[in-house]
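In keeping with the milestone schedule agreed at the kick-off meeting, the structural modelling team has produced records for the first pair of proteins. Each record is given below as a sequence line and a structure-token line. The laboratory manager (R.T.) confirmed that both were archived under the project's standard naming scheme.
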Amino acid sequence: MKKTLLLSAALLAVCPAYAQTQPQLLFTNTKLDMTYPDVAGDYLVYNQRLRKRHQVMQVQRSQLDGSAQHVDAKFNNEIVRYGIAIANGDIAFVSNRLGVITPWLNTSSKQVAIHTGIFHSLLMPNHLDVSSDGQTWVFDSTLEAARTPRLSKQFSDVKLKHELQGQAWRMYHERLWQTKSGYPETQKGLQNTFEKPYLFAFYHGSNDVTMLNDGFDASLSQDGKSMVFVRETRGNFDLWLQNIDGTGLKRLTKNTYADVEPSLSPDGKMVAFVSNRDSRGDVLQTFIHVLDLNTGKITAVTSGMGITDGGPAWLDNNTIIFHSNRASQAPSTDTVDNWRLWTVALPK
């Protein structure tokens, strides 16, 4: 099944040059929620919701205005989420198709459930990532039995609140995992009674699943040998780097507030991430930042008022794609009630 996508005129600024540093809107459809883009090879994958219908979409990076491939739910009450691009055109995703939440691989000829045995007990794959070649898979899961049914219900909620749809990093914190009229600042000392989630990794085709350290929302390097992930300590969210074999643990940020949703650049030299450091911990005002792994320098590449940016990925080493609730007519100030995809070029 294919679907023609409409683009705004701003898309012309995306290919092939990236001269502007102001966010540029990709798709003009205002009725859709588009979240958590991912890029590998010549493919862009993102998650899409129209009313109660969820899809994982795939377009070619070299022809973003072309037709899109779908991964759709096949049964009533099924939800498909967490779409991940693989360089050969395959798509990894997560679904509750089997009655429990499991990772899947969509190829040109079939859909295969991955490691179904381990997910019939306690583990629940959240924040999935897969290396560009499709061989290394990493996910996080709670080990807290009382949390599993709650997270499963949230995953399956077709009317999931707008905030939670685009801020999946909040799911592991007692004070942030539900929508409220107001939130405390995400700063050190904020009480969290939830047990820490843990990271797990496996290789496609292997029966072994390795439990790594506590953390979540890992982003793999292109070769699948290292990852950047989030660790929360008493309300403070920071980024860490580690080899997938468990060695080389290194803290990357030490911020008072929240640094979350990391994404390693294709050349492995930079990390794009989401932070509310510029809004002093406001959960609903988050912007895209870039960390240079060689120098440690952090640069904010988006800004605004009342804006929630999230889910950064790299179109190339100089351009970031992300979702945001910015309004197309006033992208620096106003917000809308749905998520759209934007791009921003790194400052020169």
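The second protein of the pair:
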Amino acid sequence: MKYSHTRAVHAGREDFDALGVHVPPIDLSTTYPVRDLDTGTASFDALVGGAASAANPIYARLFNPTVARFERALAQLEGCSDAVAFASGMAAASACLLAARQRGSHVLAVRPLYGTHDHLLESGLMGLPVRWVEAEAIGDEVRADTALVIIETPSNPTLDLVDIAAVVKAAGKVPVLVDSTFATPVLQQPVLQGARLVMHSATKFLGGHGDVIAGVVACDAEWAVLLRQVRAATGGLLHPLAAYLLHRSLPTLALRVERAQANAITLAQRLSTHAAVAKTFFPSLGTVANAHLLGTQMLGPGTMISFDLKGGHAAAAQLMRKVKVATPAVSLGSVDTLIQHPAGLTHRVLDEATRERHSITPGLVRLSVGIEDVEDLWADLQQALSA
């Protein structure tokens, strides 16, 4: 399914005519009147059991119409039947692991992943031990009790691409979860390659303005039931105001990604020849694993750049002090450019040997390129690098 600007504008708005509105209403109710007890009881059972909706919403932890509209919209953009939204990307990741416990007792995962996701898996807090494997070895490591295979592509922070279709084939009957945060549905739709779950930290590109924290998993109906059950039991619900902001941002998602990607292509090319830079990680430069997947699995190189500074940690720290247009801050996918140091921040929870093994060096800097004028961004990076 090709990404559609028209679908992005209209998805999740199917009930607007009946409601007589032009923009999504925000339902802030925490509880709903139960005039008919039998209907209320049946609705409660359905929602706790993982149903997408019921005659009576009962309680906002079980259902909220504003959240449901965003979920329907995101599911359409990812080509899935369902989507389940959570209070953060990590709440979404946790729910996937808790749901996976119903089908197995361990997971396989490919590094690198977002640092906190890595830490969650390594800690065993969700009750599922992890075995870290290379993508090419998944077929040899799958067991009868494997609950889930987890990959991130492009990977955080080195932007390596993982062949989703190859992983799905190697996993066999084991469901594959793809963290597609960096790609967004504009550039990549993992279900077309056979993935069962597509996870986003919606805080990033889906929100796009640095003003909402959220997570969402697009999936099939079977997984949606499990994820809603977990959300109802654990309370990892997305606030309706956050859902409104996310739904509001979806129509401009492609415009933001395409503009920032054009900037990133220019900046990556220039950084790759800068005297202070040892290596620039960017798919269209061919400097990441499986760059050949660009144009097929992933339609463009994206908006993220990582580059390793010859001066190591000191140079990275100086760069973050000296930038004036870019903001030195964690997170990504916003309309403004953000720059951060993975080894010292987002991936600090990994041990040093693991960081080094996956090229997360003391000199590595990650740039989330925004929609500013590209020459302003380049001038800012040049002055900071020369300093």
